[in-house]
Amino acid sequence: MRLLSLTNASLDSLLCSGSTVHVCADGGANRVFDELPCFFPHDDPSDIRKRYKPYAIKGDMDSIRTDVLDFYRGLGTKIIDESHDQDTTDLHKCVAYILELLNPEHPNLCILATGALGGRFDHEMGNINVICRFPSMPIILLSDDCLIQLLPSTHHHKIHIQSSVEGPHCGLIPIGTAGGRTTTTGLKWNLDKTEMRFGGLVSTSNIVKENIVTVQSESDLLWTISIKKE
């Protein structure tokens, strides 16, 4: 059984929550540089950028600004240029790098990817493909509006809903192939050995009704739930 729980989705809390390593995917460093000081309006922007500097910036380096690259390089951030690899996305490169740095077998290891949703649809689909390529690693894609995580069919999933920060809107979506039979509890419209597929039934615009949602499926599914705005 795999247990899922989101405790807080805000960027400042994620950075302050004791994460082991912070890695920026190419142009993601621009967003950290520009937006992070906004979460600490009473502090000096330069101090905030130094306090939360990324451990590494990795990608094909086609999006990061020169001033941002020079700033973080001066702070000792590792700059890893993989422009020779055009077959994988920047997120894929960063996930692979994190798994090289850390023990992928650690039971509490989870990768949170902020800024992975929104913007160009092909980028979103590329990022969703990344979590499907690493099915044994819990990877959560976060935006201001929702999160997405893969639920592998190899597990019976028990999802703890943190109602103060997420929900109630949610969905279960088959990805890649037609979904096998799926059974859920804790939703307004539960599934009972229901088969899902594109061109047929998919469980979108569902509603969380309980503090715990369970999902058991014969095929991999995407779980998505809305994020509450303060």
UniProtKB/TrEMBL annotation:
SMART domains registered for this protein in UniProt: TPK_B1_binding
CDD domains the UniProt entry points to: TPK
Keyword Kinase: yes
Keyword Kinase attached: yes
Reactions mediated catalytically: thiamine + ATP = thiamine diphosphate + AMP + H(+)
GO biological process, one term: thiamine metabolic process
Domain of life: Eukaryota
Enzyme Commission number(s) of this protein: 2.7.6.2
GO MF term set: ATP binding; kinase activity; thiamine binding; thiamine diphosphokinase activity
Keywords carried by this UniProt record: ATP-binding, Kinase, Nucleotide-binding, Transferase
InterPro entries per UniProt: Thi_PPkinase, Thiamin_pyrophosphokinase_euk, Thiamin_PyroPKinase_B1-bd, TPK_B1-bd_sf, TPK_catalytic, TPK_catalytic_sf
Location(s), subcellular: Cytoplasm, Cytosol
Residue ranges that the Swiss-Prot or TrEMBL entry lists as coiled coil: none
Protein role: Catalyzes the phosphorylation of thiamine to thiamine pyrophosphate (TPP). TPP is an active cofactor for enzymes involved in glycolysis and energy production. Plant leaves require high levels of TPP for photosynthesis and carbohydrate metabolism.
Family under the similarity heading: Belongs to the thiamine pyrophosphokinase family.
Protein name as it appears in the record: Thiamine pyrophosphokinase
Gene source species: Nicotiana tabacum
Taxonomy of the source species: Eukaryota, Viridiplantae, Streptophyta, Embryophyta, Tracheophyta
